Amino acid sequence: MRIISGTARGTRLKTPKGLVTRPTLDRVREALFSKIGGLLPDASVLDLFAGSGALGIEALSRGAAKATFVEVSKEALAVIRDNLEKTKLKERANVVPSAVDPFLKNERGTFDVIFADPPYLREETGEDWATRLLEKTTLPQRLKEGGVFVLETQADYRMHLPAHWELLDERAYGKTRLWYLVPANR
């Protein structure tokens, strides 16, 4: 996996070992950033379930002013820090060792772009993380006016959209689907 464009273009990124983290494929990231590229200059970005940090790092490489990476896995946190060092983007990054739920409960800042690539299912309960995220009323409050929430799911995910979200667009790329959402009634 590599950075596609910007100041860190071509830099190869590390990924956490094992199957717990699913890095977003280059062609999916390329499509995503082609769609939201106009939002990135001087943007503040939030990367939830950050994994390798590829989405937030790509945003920084393309001109985002700052990125916050939220990740609970110690191995993934070390990979994110290594990738930020390798790309020389660590000065504009904030790496938060936290689960997403407590982070969203306690965070008061707002962001221009929020990325989330949650685990598809929670093993112990079978709970769907994407649906759980969408139901959180605190998440749309974290978006600045004109901001966008990009949710990555498996391609066959069936979304039930809560009333506090509006769907702008969705696209499938092989086994992956990207959903572009904004807060409703803004």
From TrEMBL:
InterPro entries reported for this sequence: DNA_methylase_N6_adenine_CS, RNA_MeTrfase_RsmD, SAM-dependent_MTases_sf
Pfam families the UniProt entry points to: Cons_hypoth95 (PF03602)
Assigned EC number: 2.1.1.171
The entry's keywords: Methyltransferase, Transferase
Membrane-crossing segments per the record: none
Enzyme class: transferase
GO molecular function: 16S rRNA (guanine(966)-N(2))-methyltransferase activity; nucleic acid binding
Superkingdom per UniProt: Bacteria
Keyword Transferase tagged: yes
Protein known as: 16S rRNA (Guanine(966)-N(2))-methyltransferase RsmD
Organism: Sulfuriroseicoccus oceanibius
